[in-house]
């Protein structure tokens, strides 16, 4: 078993540069070029390909292969591993048939199921057994025959999209080249302006009696004004060009919207829990807590005196915002007519509630 695995590894080794047909070696012939055919992926040198397949189709010369090959099917391997090369070719062949786009499906689940089906078909063609490969080829052929119109339409749409991408890249490269040329022209104009200003300054110094500092300052101001005017003009032309290009590139795309910044999570749903009737301080002087503050055992396990202060004050002030008179007055009257006795009983009960509520408040303080 180990000997067979070793021989298989040697056969699939991409560094093995020996032609299986003529036994030519790249070590002795550095210009030797190997070619493969997608029908069987057996590599052979270009000399053997020209010698065997120039006159027409012929069987593969590799022993125990026997597949009919044509010269136009040979090409140079892009990957060093022929398994990867074979999988890439299969993906290209399947992708040319299963070329639907996501916007053709109603839901994302349908699109994912379609992609899963395509990947399963590719896996059967790459790693499946002989029966699985035959079934996969039949499925591929049946789908091609039944969806020929959609396949051709999607192929044209893909080619149009690729052409539009090429045009966009070409326009971007041209815009970059124009900006580079504009920068070079601006640099040359600035050099010419500096040379003219120097010449004018020298002429004014030689022909007039004005102050030399004033003359140089005026020349510098003129140069700055010209350079700023050129820069403003170039920026306006560039912005107009971008506006025109943005309207003529790709039509039908969705408008890009800036993502909304997510707010931090609020577990209370926006309810403000800040106390309105009192202000919580950092510390309070209490004889009951003096020992707990100085003893580290009370602070173990995440115990916090701030939580104790907050809970105690909340319980003390929790009933101050409740008014029994308002709640009783807001209650709906009974449907039956109230008699004098029931009205008196209601007043007595309301008075009793007020007394109890007053007692509770007195007990708190």
Distance between the termini: 92 Å
Share of residues in strands: under 5%
State the helicity in percent bands: 55-70%
- Mean pLDDT over the full residue set: 76
Number of helices: 11
Query: Sheet bearing the most strands, described?
Result: 2 strands, antiparallel
The secondary-structure element order is: HEEHEEHHHHHHHHH
Shape: flat
Radius of gyration: 44 Å
- Look at the helices and sheets and give the structural class: mainly alpha
Output the strand order for the largest sheet: 1-2
Unreliable stretches: 1-12, 243-253, 357-365
Number of strands: 4
Describe this structure in words.
The protein is mostly helical. Among the domains are: 15-77, Zinc/RING finger domain, C3HC4 (zinc finger) (Herpes Virus-1); 179-248; 272-323 and 352-365, no CATH class. Helices cover 59% and strands 2% of the residues. The chain has eleven helices and four strands; from the N terminus they run H-E-E-H-E-E-H-H-H-H-H-H-H-H-H. It has a two-stranded antiparallel ribbon with strand order 1-2. It has a two-stranded antiparallel ribbon with strand order 3-4. The longest helix has 60 residues, at 148-207. It is flat and about 115 Å long. The chain starts with a helix and ends with a helix. Residues 1-12, 243-253 and 357-365 have low confidence and may be disordered. Residues 19-62 form the RING-type domain. GO terms for molecular function: cyclin-dependent protein serine/threonine kinase activator activity; zinc ion binding. Pfam families: MAT1, zf-C3HC4_5. It is found in: Nucleus.
